[in-house]
Each structure stands twice: as structure tokens, then as C-alpha cells.
Amino acid sequence: MPGQGEMSYSTAHLRTVMQNAFIIIFLVTIIGIRLFLFVRPMAGITIGPVRVHHYMWGIVGASIAIVLHVMPLFAISLALIIDELTFVCIGGSTHEDNYSTISLIGTIALSALVFVLRRQLLGLV
């Protein structure tokens, strides 16, 4: 029968594994989006008068992930949001705006913030 110390270690170890998995999924998603759109630039689909950006899919996905407690979906959805947040805030509208210095620095800074807040963010799912 495991002692109290062993149980605590297992719980702490599991938290660390979950945090690492969350960050890896998050970063791979951002890198994947950036590489895909760099090689094959495309605008979001348009539904009526609204252009649907990937941050919008991220909001929907994050909401579902929080309700259903699905960490991988939450990591992917948060990456979709963070990847495009600076672009939207600067009023970007072109492929060049998405790869501008300010957009890239913003995405890196927001990704660093996600890393710092990973424990709290995982508390949502």
C-alpha cells in the first residue's frame, strides 16, 4: 500500500505531465498554423457579411472544452485564439500583417503568458 508521500508524488507528477502535454499541444498548434498559412495563405471563410477567422473557432472550441473538460481541445482552441489575437488587435487584414514584427512579437508574448499561467488555465478543464 503506498504511503502518503508516494501518493503526493504521483499527483504532482501527473500535474506536471498534464502541464507539459498542454504546452506541447498549444505550441505545436501555433507552429502548425503559422507554417501552414505561410506556405498556403488563405482568408477565412465568409458566412454572409462575416469573415470567420480561426480565433472564432478557438472561442467555440475552448467553450466546449471547458464544459466537457477536454484538455487537448482546450490547448488547440487556446492556440487558435492566441495565434490571431495580436493580428486582430492591430487591425490586420493581410497576410503581411499576420507576419509583421508586431504580430509575431504579440503572439510570442501571449504564448509566454499562457506558459506562465498554464496551471491556472488547466484549472478550467
The N- to C-terminal Cα distance equals 30 Å
How can the largest sheet be summarized? 2 strands, antiparallel
Order of strands across the main sheet: 1-2
Number of strands: 2
Structural class based on helices, strands and sheet pairing: mainly alpha
Task: Count every helix, treating DSSP H or I runs of 4 or more residues as helices.
Answer: 6
Rg is 17 Å
Average pLDDT figure: 90
Strand content: under 5%
The helical percent reads: over 70%
Shape: globular
In N-to-C order, the SSE pattern is HEEHHHHH
> Would you identify the regions where 5 or more consecutive residues have pLDDT less than 50?
none
- Integer tally of domains: 1
Keywords: Membrane, Transmembrane, Transmembrane helix
Transmembrane segments: 20-43, 55-79, 99-117
Please provide a written account of the structure.
The chain has 125 residues and is mainly alpha-helical. It has one domain. It is 76% helix and 3% strand. The chain is built from 6 helices and 2 strands. The longest helix has 36 residues, at 4-39. The two termini are 30 Å apart.
